Amino acid sequence: MSQRTHAPATENLNVASFESMPSPRQLKARLPLDAAAAQTVLDARQTVCRILDRQDERLFVIVGPCSVHDPDAALEYARRLRSLAERVSDRLYLVMRVYFEKPRTVTGWKGFINDPRMDDSFHIEEGIEHARKFLLDLARLGVPAGTEALDPISPQYLGDLIAWYTIGARTSESQTHREMASALSAPVGFKNGTDGDISVAINGIRSAQQPHSFLGIDAKGVTSIVRSRGNQYGHVVLRGGQAPNYDSAQVALCEEALAAAGLRANIVIDCSHANSRKQHERQPLVFHDCIHQIIEGNRSIVGLMLESNLVAGNQPVPDDLSKLIFGCSVTDACIGWEATEKTLLDAASALGAGGPRAKLSR
Prior knowledge:
- The protein is α/β, with parallel strands linked by helices.
- The protein contains eleven helices and ten strands.
- The chain has a single domain, classed as TIM Barrel, CATH 3.20.20.70.
- 36% of the residues lie in helices and 14% in strands.
- It has an eight-stranded parallel beta barrel, surrounded by eight helices.
- A hairpin with a 5-residue loop joins strand 6 and strand 7 (223-227).
- Helix 3 (71-88) runs parallel beside helix 4, helix 3 runs parallel beside helix 10 (337-351) and helix 6 packs across helix 7.
- The relative contact order is 0.14.
């Protein structure tokens, strides 16, 4: 008789360990969505959809920190933003930028969900729970949240608290992210590629509009075949590339490309990243240039994005976290609160209740 031999191991050779995560259902049982928070999310999604459908003449503005690393500082920012939102509500609809995951070109802090202790310990189970708690606090304040959809599993844990998503420049071309976008419950902006190519964003929108079937998890954390209906509220986000692309000529080219693809000319302009040439002080200049385009008759710019925090600039992550400056970014440099407030108040005044924007026949 021949002896049975064991096959050599061929899988998980580079995996150090597997650690259990709570299921989405378990986390939501610990941190449930209450009626007031749910209404904030639903109202915000409906408002953004109405803006995209040209039923609401306001601009929506995604404004907030490059990334959240300190929930206390982010909550203080949210309180200020809520007050400011009331002052500009006739012309602008504000959604707080709440980014918990950071795509890295090579290395660096990967964001609050992946590394909440900011020490490379990667307690993801803590990060996802703290992120949900923060989003609940935000919704209870009446402040809607916008974020980047990066990890395809995270929306099962947090998606009930998100009013608007973006797919980043590094992932707009990814089939995984296009499939995920097709299943998300909120409007989704696709950024142009890092080289400035807008076709990847347009193809992303077209793909996400269609039903898809793909692997994911359900509320119990069980691996499942997800069958989506398609997301009809995709739109382009211009974030610059090898050169800025927010000016009227580049916006017109984007409009033409959207029309050729049979898509509505809905364009959001990211005033940071390549559009500000990575100089945070330039963001208000980009913002006001876009406002001027609208006043001059542009009908396609429906939203703008700003990276903003309590304190201007950014800071490295110190070994002693007690040395962190409260309300200052640890990723991309942001404009400070005073510049944020002035930028948004000036924009609302320039547009004016009953002014040029309201008179546009869209």
